[in-house]
Amino acid sequence: MEKPILIVENPDSGAHRRTQNGYFITPEEVTQFREQGYLILNNVLTENEMATLDPWFDHFIRGKEPNMGRDFCDMSQPYGTPVEDFKLVNAMLPSKYRPELSNNIFFQLAQNIANQLYEGTAAMDYEQFLAKKPNKEQAAFAMHQDLGYWPKTANTWTATFSLALSNAAVENGCLQVVPGSNKEPQLRKHRPKDYGNQDPESVNRDDSHTLVIDMKPTDEILYLPVVRGSITIHDERIVHGSAGNSSNEWRKTYIMAFRDANTIAEERAMGFTHSHNDTVNWDTILDH
C-alpha cells in the first residue's frame, strides 16, 4: 500500500513578520531548525520585490548568460546534455557572472534570518537558480544530504534558503525532507548517479554531478509546499530532494546557502567554490 502524502505548513509565519530588510523568526522556529533540520517561512518577499528577481532568473534559466560552462547544466542528466533537452535547469553562482545581482533583497532577508539562526558569523557561500520545466516528471532531484557534496570542514553548519519564485506544490515537485535525519550520527553513503549509459561502478563525480543515497524503510518523507515569495530553509545533513514536475507550469526556485565565514574560507583554500567548473580532487577533499 502506498504511503499517504504528509504535508507540513507553518501558518503562524507571514508578512506580519517583516521589517524593512528583516524577517523575525521565533525561538521555537530556531529550535525546530536545529532539531528537525528544516523550516518554512511564508510571504517573506513582496510581489514588488519578487518582480526585481524574475528577469534575472529568466535570463539565466533561458541560457542567455554566456561563458558559464558547466555552471549552466541539467541537474537530472549528465554533463553535455543538449540545452534543448534540459529538464531540471540549473544556473550556478548567478551573481558571480552578473555582479548587479549581488546584495539583492532576497540576499538581505536571507542574511538577516541566517544571523538569527546561527551563533556566529554567517555569510553566503553560494547561490543558484533552479527550474523544472512543465510536464517533466524526470526533472527530479534525487534524495541526498548537502554535506555529501562538499569537502570536509571543521564547522559544517549550513542554512540553505529556497525562495519560491513560483508556487511550489506536490504536483510540480516541491521540497521533500526526512525530518530529524540531520541528527543521524553518520552521513549516509552518497554515490554518483548512474544515468544508465555506463557501468555503474565506473561512474565518478567528474561524469555525474548528481549524487544519490539509499533510503531507509523507516524514513518518513514530509512535503513542504509553499507559495511564491515564501522560503524553505534546510540544514546540511537533512535528507531531502524533490520529485519531477507533472504540472503544466514551470517550477522556479532561487537558492542561497549560508555557512560560517571561516568554513567558506576553508573551502576556498581547497579550491572549492561550488562552481561545476572547479577542478577538484574528490578523493582528497571528501572525507566525512
Distance between the termini: 36 Å
Output the CATH class name: Mainly Beta
Q: Looking at CATH, which topology would you report?
A: Jelly Rolls
Number of strands: 14
Series of H and E elements: EHEHEEHHEEEEEEEEEEHH
Indicate the CATH architecture: Sandwich
The portion of residues forming beta strands comes to 15-25%
Q: How would a crystallographer describe the biggest sheet?
A: 7 strands, antiparallel
What count of domains describes the coordinates?
A: 1
The backbone outline, from C-alpha atoms, is globular
SSE-based structural type: alpha+beta
Averaged pLDDT, please?
92
Largest sheet, spatial ordering of strands: 2-12-7-14-5-4-3
Helical segment count: 6
Structure characteristics:
alpha+beta; five-stranded mixed β-sheet; Jelly Rolls
Secondary structure topology:
Elements: E1 6-7, H1 27-36, E2 38-41, H2 47-61, E3 72-74, E4 88-92, H3 94-97, H4 105-117, E5 122-132, E6 141-144, E7 158-164, E8 175-178, E9 191-192, E10 211-212, E11 222-224, E12 231-234, E13 239-242, E14 251-260, H5 261-269, H6 282-285
Parallel strand pairs: 1-11
Antiparallel strand pairs: 2-12, 3-4, 4-5, 5-14, 6-13, 7-12, 7-14, 8-11, 8-13, 9-10
Q: Any overview of this molecule?
A:
The protein is globular. With 288 residues, the chain is an alpha+beta fold. The protein has a single domain (6-276), classed as q2cbj1_9rhob like domain (Jelly Rolls, Sandwich). 19% of the residues lie in helices and 23% in strands.
